[in-house]
Task: structure prediction
Amino acid sequence: MKAMGKVFKYGDNVDTDVIIPARYLNSSDPKELAMHCMEDIDSDFYKNVEKGDIIVANKNFGCGSSREHAPISIKVAGVSCVIATTFARIFYRNAINIGLPILECEAAVKGIEAGDKVEVDFDSGIITNVTKGETYQAEAFPPFMQELIQADGLVNYIKKA
Amino acid sequence: MGMTMTQKILAAHAGLEQVKAGQLIQANLDLVLGNDITTPVAIKEFHKIGVDQVFDKKKIAIVPDHFAPNKDLKAAEQCKFVREFALDKEIENYFEVGEMGIEHALIPEKGLVVPGDVVIGADSHTCTYGALGAFSTGIGSTDMAAGMATGKCWFKIPSAIKFELTGKLNKWVSGKDVILHIIGMIGVDGALYKSMEFVGEGVNTLSMDARFTMANMAIEAGAKNGIFIVDEKTLEYAKEHSTKAVVVYAPDEDAEYDEVYKINLSTIRPTVAFPHLPDNTRTIDEVGEIKVDQVVIGSCTNGRMEDLRITAEILRGKKVAKGVRVLVFPGTQKIYLQAIDEGLVQDIVKAGAVFSTPTCGPCLGGHMGILAKGERAISTTNRNFVGRMGHVESEVYLSSPEVAAASALTGYITNPEKI
Ligand code: SF4
Result:
């Protein structure tokens, strides 16, 4: 499995209140949520994001609330992968559980700039910066999580069990 | 090798003798919780799993509190969807408006968590129940769906940071100041993926309300859970509120910790978190002159009896500053009623503050107190992220009820010692 797209880059501690502000949580319709994704730090995000694009951010991405609406809005907006130095733990769980691939890789975060074209190979964990001609090695998922992702999220995983 | 308190509880619920940090396990759950925002998503996932019934009607709690009482049409539809599911699946612990409260104030009060339990909740502040010596953590809606269907959840066994408390808090200083101090010290990702274990004789001097406040904000340091050792006060609380069987766990003497902090409670000063992160803290002595438009006292962090008592004590016989909107939110109906019985509501309303029905309301910028562009609030809630209480250009400062109530009287962030 591979992902490929242009990069939107953000800083430290991107919290769930800016990923999807609470004022929109009176709906759980994924498409409606996607329209407001990142609105409070990047008001044009939804306008500019294209299918396959990649979000890169520094540490503690997704901190704050447990709202699954956050990874859902990112996924449905078209983002194929989020790469960060670290993720907040509930966001990490939620992303895996809904099948949004996420990778922790400090070197990639340091090397990649906004607008770069990046390719991610999920099987090997290798991230390629096509624009700069660099590659970075992300840590692969532990086997248990690979199973979850292969089953396309927790719900299907349980169904199979 | 020794285990931390959290590791012991998780091992027991996974049927294992021994676990170590990093290990993936499946644990049996004693309670699965959701609210009006996260449960709708969970219900849709639950239906996809294809089971007909929940794993145990007694072990699920659903509390509409975020946009309830319904703030608008969409919220009304969401609450209705949740209500119908709860009725259809005969969920015993569904709490309708009139008996509900803010979930993390309500669940312990209803006796649904006791020491030794494993609890997941589709709300990040589910870590609150660690105050009772339970393992309890926030998860997402899909985890809630899976938990409702199977009664199990996967966890990675966390390592831990130990906080050894000694001494006793001074007057005008409370649990909120301790946890803000700690978050300021270790940062918003200082305990990422880890447990925060609160031990030491200082714990015994803290009330249960103070412990709930502290455990509540473990997530603000990125922690998986915050947990307190069990003492007389915990056992008394459990006995008073619950008939469930209590199991007391203590960390092993030789348990391994990533870090150990020693904190003398008597040295803690009233502490305020400046925008826009909870770790951006300063002591009250370093705050300077900061004017506020709104004061919010309540939430799952500070909407308990002690918080209302100190608020009333400070406001009693005085008037809030002109032009400042002061909103007080009790955590539950029971707290509401007790506040009436003790005459606290009289003091608060006579001072010119609003006393509301329990709801999350302003805490997440939902309703009942949204901030306009450029406005500033001091709040006893737990998050001051960009746009948390309203406009993206509004500001939230976090503090104890002591500091918030003192600020209500002056219109500036104020040291309660000087009131
Ligand atoms: S009071 Fe605030 S922090 Fe607590 S559950 Fe409600 S919205 Fe979340």
Notes: The first helix of chain B runs from residue 5 to 14. The two ends of chain B are 52 Å apart (CA to CA). DSSP finds 13 helices and 18 strands in chain B. Residues B 65-66, 102-104, 123, 125, 299-300, 360, 363-364, 381-382 surround iron/sulfur cluster (CB under 6 Å).
